[in-house]
Write a structure and sequence with these properties.
Elements: H1 2-20, H2 29-49, H3 53-66, H4 73-86, H5 90-103, H6 107-123, H7 127-140, H8 145-159
Helix pairs in contact: 1-2, 2-3, 3-4, 4-5, 5-6, 6-7, 7-8
Length: 164
């Protein structure tokens, strides 16, 4: 089944790509691959936006297998995390945000991923994990927007005695 799905993706990507490039006679292989990736992502996003979540999920997962070093890698992982959240698989979503946070070099993005991870732990009642993440956010950037939110969340957790 997966092979058939993969073949269908490649065929549809190739057809869409050839239709979009009738005027272009020559292109190098990097340009072709980049355009294929753009079409692949656009197709998955269209499925996601049309609420065809399970099919979009398969497209995103296949994309990461086919193009593991793509410039869209972080974006795709975030979309998969969103799908996990929509389907109430919060731990899987938190796991992806944790991976992204560890891979990220940009401090603002690292903090944003930490916040999403903490928020998901809050949603599932794993307050000790969310508290750790909120404290880490404050430690990384004491004055930013996410650190202010983290302080509010920590206060809420403490005021409501949510840590047992």
């Amino acid at each position: 089944m997966k092979k058939k799905f993969f073949i269908l993706i490649i065929i549809s990507t190739s057809i869409l790509y050839s239709q979009n490039n009738k005027e272009k006679k020559t292109e190098n292989s990097e340009d072709v691959e980049k355009k294929q990736q753009e079409i692949f992502v656009q197709t998955a996003d269209n499925l996601y936006n049309d609420e065809k979540i399970k099919i979009a999920y398969l497209y995103y997962k296949d994309f990461l297998e086919i193009y593991p070093q793509s410039q869209y890698k972080k974006y795709i992982k975030e979309k998969i995390a969103e799908i996990y959240e929509k389907t109430h698989e919060y731990h899987k979503a938190a796991e992806i945000f944790s991976q992204l946070q560890h891979e990220e070099e940009n401090l603002n993005e690292k903090i944003r991923y930490l916040y999403h991870e903490a928020r998901l732990y809050d949603m599932t009642g794993f307050y000790s994990l969310s508290v750790d993440k909120y404290k880490k956010i404050i430690k990384l950037d004491d004055t930013g927007t996410f650190s202010n939110i983290a302080r509010e969340k920590l206060k809420y957790i403490a005021d409501n005695n949510l840590l047992h």
